[in-house]
Specification:
mainly alpha; two-stranded antiparallel ribbon; two-stranded antiparallel sheet; 4 strands; 3% strand
Length: 278
């Protein structure tokens, strides 16, 4: 079809408000909208933030680091949406009486994207990397958000509904769903092994921390293996390693599990691809 025919066949533009709604509902805007909803819901329901200034410092550090490193590396200003998600994740997850862990975790999260790379892509989910490192290096001054939604079911239900719609829109529903199913299966296994009530085993998944983990960390397309089958296998392994850590009473089990399994899966995939070419 010629350019003129395409122009004549193109429907007339709709009113400006409709176009604005379409822009808002583009896939690239959905994750920042969801994580902002998680923050607002959790803060107004339970007051989860240590302080607005600390979360603000985490977000500002992540965005500034992304803009600076993107400019230095690519010669252009990059879209800061990913850095916003990283910064707000750090601001929600990290617990410390000091402001430096928020700045440090956000900074090394973004730096890891540009330094720790394989085949032109980073191999750690940025916020998982930053949070895991600061927890490991400063256990005396840094801890992790551990609040659950408790008996207030509506905030969690709304976030889960929004989250599953959004990950479906961006093609990652199979990842979140596989992890959630695996978590429940392994939670019942842990309950059978330890003799603890199964309600206690599944309780952590009801918290804001796990909403970030389910919808943003395990679904990160930049750090996922390429096939859907492989992605499902990886998150099942993450849930399995998390179970082992929990049985060993490791406090930050899901973060350390993803920290180990995710990059290992990418390295194995790269090795497999090289072997297939030779």
């Amino acid at each position: 079809m010629s350019a003129g025919a395409m122009a004549s066949a193109r429907p007339s533009p709709g009113p400006a408000p409709a176009r604005g709604w379409r822009v808002m509902l583009e896939n690239r805007f959905l994750p920042p909208i969801l994580i902002t909803c998680i923050l607002i819901s959790a803060q107004f329901s339970f007051g989860i933030l240590e302080g607005y200034e600390r979360t603000g410092a985490a977000i500002a550090t992540a965005i500034l680091a992304e803009l600076a490193l993107g400019r230095l590396t690519h010669g252009r200003w990059v879209n800061p949406a990913s850095a916003y998600i990283t910064g707000i994740s750090v601001g929600i997850l990290v617990r410390s009486p000091f402001i430096w862990p928020y700045v440090f975790a956000s900074l090394i999260s973004i730096v890891s994207k540009y330094v720790l790379r394989l085949g032109g892509r980073h191999i750690w989910n940025p916020s998982n990397f930053g949070v895991s490192v600061v927890l490991f290096l400063a256990p005396a001054t840094v801890t992790l958000l551990s609040i659950q939604w408790g008996n207030t079911i509506w905030p969690m239900a709304i976030i889960w509904l929004l989250g599953f719609v959004i990950v479906w829109r961006v093609g990652r529903l199979h990842v979140s769903a596989a992890y959630v199913v695996s978590f429940f299966v392994f939670a019942f296994v842990r309950s059978a092994i330890t003799g603890n009530p199964w309600q206690a085993a599944i309780a952590p998944i009801t918290g804001p921390m796990y909403q970030l983990f389910i919808f943003f960390m395990v679904t990160d397309p930049k750090t996922a293996v390429r096939t859907k089958r492989g992605q499902v296998i990886v998150v099942v392994l993450v849930a399995f390693v998390e179970m082992l850590f929990r049985l060993a009473e490791v406090i930050y089990a899901p973060f350390y599990a993803l920290f180990l399994v995710g990059p290992a899966a990418l390295l194995i995939e790269a090795w497999w691809a090289r072997s297939a070419r030779t």
